[in-house]
Each structure stands twice: as C-alpha cells, then as structure tokens.
Amino acid sequence: MSDPIINTDDLIRVSVSLFIVMDPIGLVPLMASLTSNMSSEQSRRVIRSTIYTASGLLLTFALAGHYILDLFDISLAGFSVAGGLLLLLISLQLLLKGWELKGDDISIGAVPLAFPLLVGPGAITTTIISLERHGIPLTMLSVAIALAFTMLTFSFINRINRLLGSLGSLIVSRVMAILIAGIAIEFIVSGIKEFMMAG
After folding, report:
1. Above 90 in pLDDT, residue 147?
2. In the predicted model, is pLDDT for residue 1 greater than 70?
3. Torsion of CA 148, 80, 6, 20, to 10 degrees
4. Measured distance CA(176)–CA(182) in Å, rounded
5. Whole-angstrom Cα distance, residue 166 to residue 152?
6. Would you say residue 175 lies in a domain?
7. How confident is the model at residue 102 (pLDDT cuts 50, 70, 90)?
8. Exposed (0-12), middle (13-18) or buried (19+): which is 159, by Cβ within 10 Å?
9. What is the spatial distance between Cα 45 and Cα 109, in angstroms, rounded to a whole number?
10. Cα dihedral: 85, 88, 93, 95 (round 10)
11. Does 1 reside within a domain?
12. Which residues span the domain enclosing 12?
C-alpha cells in the first residue's frame, strides 16, 4: 500500500470515479417512482436505509474487500456475474408487476437500491483497487465524500415525485427496469469475459 499521507489529486480522482460508478443521479428517477406512493417520512426512511446500507457495504469492502472474497473463494468476475443475475431478476420483477414491498417498508432501501444498484460490483471493485493503490485513509475518505454527494443527490427525490405524479412514476419505473436489465447483462458479460481471459 502507498504512503498514508493523503494526496489531494488522488482523493478527488477516486471520489469522482466512485460517485460516477455508483451513479446516484441515474437512480433518482427509479427511487422517485418506487417511493411515489409513500409519505414523506417513509420516503426519507428509504433514503436513509439506502445510504446506511451502501455506507456499510463500501466501508466493509474498503477495509477488508479482498479478505471477504478470498474467504469464500469468490473472484471479482464471479461477484460481477452474481450481481448481474440478481439485478436481472429484480428488473424482471419490476418490469412485469412493479416492486412489491414485503415486510418493512424500507426494505427496498437495502435491496435493490443500496445493493446491487448503488453499490454493485463496479463500486466494490473501485473501492478495492483504491485500497491497494492509495491505502485505507484515502479510500475511507473518498467513500465518505462519494456518499455525502449521493445523499445530496437523493434530497431532490420528493420534488421529482411531485413532478412525475402517479402515471409518470409508473412509466419511469418500467423504463428504468429495462435499463437495469441492460446493466445486469453488462455485469454478466463482463464477468464472463474476465473468466475467459483468466482461463
């Protein structure tokens, strides 16, 4: 690992890269459609659940990503395929019958919003690579910065809800389901390519 002194240029580069890979801006329409029938307090709980879950996942992988994957003998390629399959199943459910809340009304904050949409194989890979190249202090700080800007982005969800309305939210959720399916296929194909290259 590199020197523990944090380089500002590296910090900005990693933080921006992580924010782009997480793509919270692209998730805003989906979150707006999924929370359109919720009260403002329920919507805030979903956002908090998403941020808390994403924070826990990213910080865990920032500290011990390789150890976790090695413990279960999982490669990043395998993790990418698994995440892609999970996303594909979620997108099909969302496309065919919408997202059905089961149990606690903030469950969608954890799955699929926090994982694997916000924190998927791409974000986890970016975090692990940053850990190897720049060390724990810079990686942890970049995760905190990316999550802070993610929270700021999600603060506009209620306004978008009011703008879309019920019909708009329904249309957006179906369109986003197709896009999520596309992302899932990319995860799966990327993982398979890595398997083939490794072989």
Report:
1. yes
2. no
3. -40
4. 10
5. 24
6. yes
7. low
8. exposed
9. 8
10. 180
11. no
12. 8-198
